[in-house]
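User: What would this chain look like folded?
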Amino acid sequence: MKLGRIQLKFIQMLLLSSSLPLIILAVITVMFLSEIAVHDAQERLNSSLNTAFTIYAEIEDNLKFAVRDQNRRIYNLMAEDQYDLLRNEYEKVVRNYDFDFFYITNEHGEVLVSIGNPGLEGMNIKRNPLIHQALSGEFTVSTEVLKKDELENLNLLEKAKISGMEKPEGLVLQAVFPIINNNEIIVGTLTAGYLLNNNNKLIIDVIKQNTGFVSSVFLGTRRIASNLPSKNPPFTVGSFLEPGKFNTMVQKGRSSGNITISGIRYLAGYTPLYNSHKEIVGILGIGIPEDTVFSLRNHLIKIFIAAFIFSIISAFILGYYRGGKITTSIVELRSAIQAVTSGNFEHQIQINSRDEIEDLGNYFNNMTSRLKVAIRELIETQKQLVEYERMAAIGRMATVLSHELKNVFAGIGVSGYYLKSKAQKDCPHLVETIQDIEKEILYANSLLENISRYSHPNKIIVGSVNLNAVVEDALTVLTLEELAKTNKVNIVKEIDASLPVMLGDGVQLKEVVLNLAINAVQAMMNGGTLTVCTKREGLSAKLFLIDTGSGIAVENLNNLFTPYFTTKSKGLGLGLAISKEIIEAHGGTIQVKSELNKGSTFTIVLPIREVPKSQLIEGAG
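Assistant: Here's the prediction, encoded as structure tokens.
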């Protein structure tokens, strides 16, 4: 497979443009997500550690209230020497609260009742510091360490055994309360509590339910209870905490860090457990697998690796095929250019690459099309020049005729006036005929004026113009008013008072408005409404003349402003052509929309060139 130079460059470009940003994005994203994950995990760890400590404190409080609430019942049974009843009744209490030990002493420290180990009954344990404090009126809820003999006395030695622990010890959560009679005299003590060794149900599982974190309880630095998953559970319970973390807790009270258990790395946090002497005897720890913390990051890394491999393959395939298409398109463009340089302007290129090369091909096709159009336009221009020469000749002839005929019409007019004055005395029945002759003379003069005006248009005399005033003046011309009255046409004005005084030729603009208004009224032979509106839109002034007349046929709309085109029985068809010249001389436009039997709308748009205030003349226009 031989690759062209463009294909190779295209593949290299695609590899760089697709892979390099992806690598940079991957590194930045992974670093950013790692930082966010660590920060969020640390916050979650601290929050969950507070929750775990709160759960432990709630268990202490529940234990305190459970023991304290038994005082009156125990005292009453002791006062009646109902020890068998007391024993039977409190076996149920122990089962309800799931106590690991529960025993009662008298005021001398002798054990009267021991639930779980009757062998303890009769022993004097007054030397126990907490029992001694209770007999002195103090109650204690604390976490304590029990030695082997103490565990044996409570029948908890087997339950407290931990793998690898040579000298069995137990960590207990216990409450010791004085039993007080109605006379506020201490008559004994009540001790109850839980062994924490191998006891997940009491604290560990509750923490996981509330936080989602696995947790452990340590006696010193040895793990004595844990719900950490492990392939070898004996190696989890019985393992040790790093000494450094224990020392940190001694100094700061709390610690956090990373641990690895059974090949799983955890983000962990620890809080100390204190005994009644405020000494650290145990640790409560929680942890979350780092795979959970960084799951999103690790998932994205896999996605980025897959995307990187895919981008390399895609870049090669796309570069190979796309580069080949580009090469083919360039060869076709070169062939087309050679054809055009040979004079073949009909040559067209078909490139469907949907890119700049296709645009270039379209430009080439447009160029050849414009060349053909330019040739046709050149021919049309030559025809127009011939027509303009013809029109110029007609204009010159019209000027001569107008000059000569005006003199003739003037003589006829004088003679007509003389005849009319004679006829009024001698032949009254001829007066009307003579008046008709005068009207026709006036009409013929107006035709000559339009021909002369179109052949030699008047120059625009720029001054200050109030378009609203121009409209008012045009609509009050007597000829228009009489024509509107004859045709029963109602003229409605809608004037925009916000139109400023602007620059223009007020006389010629009035001529345009009057011409359009007369045409509109003439189109409503059976009555109707002519609405004349002025409106300001931005930097333009708009004038609308809307009639409800017969409308204009579609085939006549394109020729409406063409000189000498008319659909009327009389007239040369120069009025609209002259109006268009006047509007365009002002830099504006004139357009028409029409529908047969519904009416027409002429729209004039003029640029607003405001007159400086210092040059304004009141009543301008």
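Confidence is low (pLDDT under 50) at residues 614-621. If you want, I can go into more detail on any region.
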